Amino acid sequence: MSDLRWLCRPLFGLVLTLTVSCGIDQNTLATIGGRQVEIVPFQTYVGEVTGEAWQAVSARVTSRLLDQYLDRQVVLEAARSRDVNLSHISSEMGPSEVQWLLDELCGPAPEPSEAEISTEVGRKAEETRPARAHVRQLLLDSHELGLEALQRLSVGEDFVEVSRQLSRAPNASDGGELGFFDHGSLPPEIDEVIFSLAPGEYSEPVQGPSGYHVFQILEVVPEGPPDLAEVEAGVRTVFAQKMVREHIQRCIGGLASEVGVEIYDKHLWFPYTGRYAEEQ
Q: Which InterPro entries match (predicted)?
């Protein structure tokens, strides 16, 4: 097998295998730290995540899912190599278990600098915040049922009670509360309806992908300067999430180099273009 190694070119500690040889079973899509990663469990994973037959999923989506699948295997193999206690980790490795392993292996993400936060807050403070509407809804099966709901509301029936009896929104029992929406953040046909209403008014039934909506506007906040406390909180959240993503990406890249990842692209049923593939 050593005379075939020239076919396998390294990339940052990873290897993309360009042959079906090298003595590897064709049911293997990769080896990670010397352990074989089989194709069938990955196909099952693709079907579970997408809700479709794995054969029907596009190459672009399948490539992205293979990245995620291999990331998990890299983290697990790195944990084994570092003698992390895996007794409580299930074979399916749910999100909370993956996060626990990442915390163990990668440590906390760095904090964004106060200078970066201050600069971004200053920039956003100069923007005008769009009008916002506080909305609740009824989600109904038909236009006729929407008209029935409106008739009951027009004679003074309680919105929450009508919601409990007629609506099939996930939170119908609580009155269909949706919270605040910025003007322009919703699909145009819904945005136009909502922002044409005054507080307390109801919309006519509006058809959407899930059924017919009757909206009530509870409050409208006109456009104006943003609330600085909200701006700062939002900036801190966005920056923190970005730092975590980048930290995890760097960490997994380092772990992949540490344990060694070898992809057998000729064993795959799709053209793989993910992160573990060599850039052209």
A: PPIase_dom_sf, PPIase_PpiC, PrsA_foldase
